[in-house]
Amino acid sequence: MTTSDWRDCRACPRLVDFLTTVREKYPDYHAAPVAAFGDENPWLLVIGLAPGLHGANRTGRPFTGDYAGVLLYQTLYDFGLASAPVSQDTADGLQLRGCRITNAVKCVPPANKPERAEIRRCNPYLTQELAVLAKHASLLALGRVAHDAVLMALQLPLSAYPFAHDARHELPGGQYLYDSYHCSRYNTQTGRLTPAMFAAVFARLTADRAAQVASIQTGSIHV
Ligand code: SF4
To answer: Quick check: 85 and 32 in contact, CB under 8 A?
Structure first.
């Protein structure tokens, strides 16, 4: 599979059927697999769950067009990783700096819940996205499904890297995998994930990145 296959992928019958229904109901929606967005050579890859029906599935950009992206893009902007605090649509000129955003599952699932077989079928695309990252790029998984999908893509055992909010896992090869609760409307409105909690995750990973860059510059680690 190559990323150019994404738009034509029909590997998940349930999701293909759902997209057909969505297209009929909302003819102006993107309603197709949603590709990653952001820096082509990022030091940080953010991995979400799947496109939201009226968000990424509508606009064609991850975490864009619904509530799920509000806290994410604001936080990226606050930490200098985005050129603006809001992602509106694919024509808004927004640029990410050093950061790229993708999803574990590229097609919108009914009720926001991909099945295990769908996560597995879509995993080769995530594997490709991870394979082209720089050696010391970091990963941020938003939620347990994304966390588990990253480990599946890297062929690492789930038991060795348990998901926990604000956890940092050092992976073989020296990459870091950071975890956060997903920045969904439910999590942010119930207080399970507050802006301060999310900012703390980004504070840690950007501080780690600054230390890493310093180490690279002094030659103590090699890219
Ligand atoms: S979820 Fe992934 S594997 Fe399934 S149809 Fe969409 S792009 Fe293909």
So the answer is: no
Of 12, 14, 22, 23, the residue with max ligand 1 atoms within 8 A of its CB, to mutate for a pocket test, comes to 12
Number of domains within the chain: 1
- 96 by Cβ neighbours in 10 Å (0-12 / 13-18 / 19+) ranks as buried
- Is residue 88 assigned to a domain? yes
Q: How far apart are CA 101 and CA 158, in angstroms?
A: 22
Distance in angstroms (rounded) separating the CA atoms of residues 161 and 45: 18
| Domain harbouring 39, CATH code | 3.40.470.10
Residues 6+ apart with CB under 8 A from 165: 179, 180, 181, 193, 197, 201
| Domain encompassing residue 166 | 3-218
User: What DSSP character marks residue 8?
Assistant: G
- Whether 52 maps to a domain, the answer reads yes
How does pLDDT run across 105-151, given as a tens digit for each residue? 999 999 999 999 999 999 999 999 999 999 889 999 999 999 999 99
Nearest protein Cα to ligand 1, atom 6: 107
Q: Where are the beta strands (DSSP E) in 85-186?
A: 99-103, 138-142, 168-170, 176-180
149, part of any domain: yes
Domain assignment present for 223: no
